[in-house]
TrEMBL record:
Keywords per UniProt: Disulfide bond, Hydrolase, Protease, Serine protease, Signal, Zymogen
Gene Ontology molecular functions: serine-type endopeptidase activity
PANTHER family with a match to the protein in the record: CHYMASE, KALLIKREIN-RELATED
Listed name of the protein: Peptidase S1 domain-containing protein
The gene coding this protein: LOC100918953
Signal peptide bounds: 1-21
Transmembrane region(s): none
GO BP, sorted A to Z: proteolysis
Lineage: Eukaryota, Metazoa, Chordata, Craniata, Vertebrata
Record InterPro entries: Peptidase_S1_PA, Peptidase_S1_PA_chymotrypsin, Peptidase_S1A, Trypsin_dom, TRYPSIN_HIS, TRYPSIN_SER
A Pfam match: Trypsin
């Protein structure tokens, strides 16, 4: 199966239209501000606008997918409904984008990026970093995790503008064998085949949270939102992450 990053799918589908973000497939609306690490990214690239998800890992750093890079990125924190500004919102410009040096656009390998914010976020009940795994903190097939984002429910918008979440099951790597470039060392296979729960357009860059720890980043999936989907395995990149954070 040809891999299709969720952002590329969206750009291909919408052609020249601006992107929007609605809801995760088969999920439910999150309790407002119950996922205070979530970040809504507004991205400009080649005179086009699109969106991705991301998540706060330090007061001045957000993690997302490398394929969400842009000419400029604005981060919104403390958001529940993307169309209804609240006092909880914090809007911050990105000062620097750190793509993984071995990011492979063709195969969507090493699909991870760190965003240095122009200034530190104010930590509140609606804005708070999520824990990251240690280098050797592994997750196992069968474990239930949470995917969170503002992505679509299907190929035709609109949907809910509110933050959505869905419980997904970690799968054996064999369930992702149809993805030509799936790499079990650096990626996670997530979502039960033949179920109606998955991530889709607009969810790129969002987290997979397992027992309160961000273990994965939404990378790519099936063009019809049929699970499983592929997430970047965060634990593998802790050395690189620490290097960037310590230097900045």
């Amino acid at each position: 199966m040809k891999l299709l990053p969720l952002l590329l799918l969206l750009l291909t589908f919408l052609l020249s239209h601006e992107t929007g973000a609605d809801e995760i497939v088969g999920g439910k609306e999150s309790m407002p501000h119950s996922r205070p690490y979530m970040a809504f990214l507004e991205i400009k690239r080649c005179k086009r606008n699109f969106t991705c998800g991301g998540f706060l890992i330090r007061r001045d750093f957000v993690m997302t997918a490398a394929h969400c890079e842009g000419d400029s990125i604005t981060v919104k924190l403390g958001v529940h409904n993307i169309r209804k500004p609240e006092e909880t919102w914090q809007t911050l410009k990105v000062k620097h984008q750190f793509l993984h040096p071995k990011y492979n656009t063709e195969r969507s390998l090493n699909d991870i990026m760190l965003l240095k914010l122009e200034k530190e976020a104010n930590l509140t009940t609606a804005v708070w970093p999520v824990y990251l795994p240690s280098r050797y903190n592994s997750v196992s097939p069968g474990q239930e995790c949470l995917a969170v984002g503002w992505g679509w429910t299907g190929p035709k918008p609109p949907g809910s503008a509110t933050l959505q979440e869905v419980e997904l099951t970690l799968r054996n790597s064999t369930d992702c064998k149809d993805f030509n470039y799936f790499n079990k060392r650096s990626q996670l296979c997530v979502g039960t085949p033949n179920s109606r729960k998955s991530v889709f357009f607009g969810d790129s860059g969002g987290p997979l949270v397992c027992s309160g720890v961000a273990q994965g980043i939404v990378s790519y999936g099936n063009e019809h939102a049929k699970p499983p989907a592929v997430f970047t395995r965060i634990a593998l990149y802790r050395s690189w992450i620490n290097q960037i954070l310590n230097a900045n």
